[in-house]
Amino acid sequence: MLEVKELNVGYGQSEVIHSASFNVEKAEILAIMGRNGMGKTTLLKSLMGLLSARAGSIKVDGMDVSSMPPHRRVRSGMAYVPQGRMIFSSLSVLENLVSGAKGKVSRSAFDEIYALFPVLFEMRKRKGGNLSGGQQQQLAIARALITEPKVLILDEPTEGIQPSIIKDIARTLREIRKMRDLTIIVSEQVVSFMMDVCDRVLVIDRGRFVHEDKRADLDEQKVMKLLAV
């Protein structure tokens, strides 16, 4: 569903991502793990076209999106939940959801969103800025799902979220994958969340992938050691 080849990304004279290559299958959940400053956010922004790649290619369901601006990548089937959520705090929950739509939203689409996130139905008239951090994260994910993506990309979804809500988010991501056969990429530092939700993990260090494993074969202690260096 997503194919990335030899991707190089940087800022000014500095190169941050060095020849990154990876594939993600349909309905697979991939976790990209790494310490702060190792290139996770830069990589995800480049996938969405928010940062221009210096070299390499990105394909979604066989379509080359490498030269597309972000809005066209969304139309091609990509959706992004940025670090810090970035909801519209002065808009209501419902208005936030509609802001993510590519056109008119069907009643069934809203029903599906509210079934996944019941709290959003209860608070649909409340301003986004009045929600808790966990509720804002659910809203940010729901807003991305309104676009009916093929690939959902989340940057540090557990940041600033209390442990009970982290478990809810993990459960919801698994439900979303099952309901929609959705491909999900999550950048993360919390190993327990990653073990809860992913099928496969890539560890990034200084812009290069240094470890890859399926969850079933994963040496959790080795990953924690890589994240602690």
Pairing-aware structural class of the strands and helices? alpha/beta
Please give the alpha-carbon distance between the first and last residues.
32 Å
Round the Cα radius of gyration to an integer and report it.
Answer: 17 Å
Low-confidence stretches: none
- Average per-residue pLDDT, rounded, comes to 93
Beta-strand proportion: 25-35%
Number of folding domains?
1
Helical stretch count? 9
Give the SSE string. EEEHEEHEHHHHEHEHEEH
Number of strands: 10
Helix content: 25-40%
Helix-strand blueprint:
Elements: E1 2-11, E2 14-24, E3 29-33, H1 40-48, E4 53-60, E5 63-64, H2 70-76, E6 78-81, H3 93-99, H4 107-116, H5 118-122, H6 133-145, E7 151-155, H7 163-180, E8 183-188, H8 191-197, E9 200-205, E10 208-214, H9 220-228
Parallel strand pairs: 3-8, 3-9, 6-7, 7-8
Antiparallel strand pairs: 1-2, 1-4, 4-5, 9-10
Helix pairs in contact: 3-6, 7-8
Descriptive report:
This protein is α/β, with parallel strands linked by helices and 229 residues long. It has one domain: P-loop containing nucleotide triphosphate hydrolases (Rossmann fold), CATH 3.40.50.300. 37% of the residues lie in helices and 28% in strands. The chain is built from nine helices and ten strands. The strands form two sheets. Strands 6-7-8-3-9-10 form a six-stranded mixed β-sheet, with helices on both faces. A four-stranded antiparallel β-sheet has the order 2-1-4-5, with helices on one face. The longest helix has 18 residues, at 163-180.
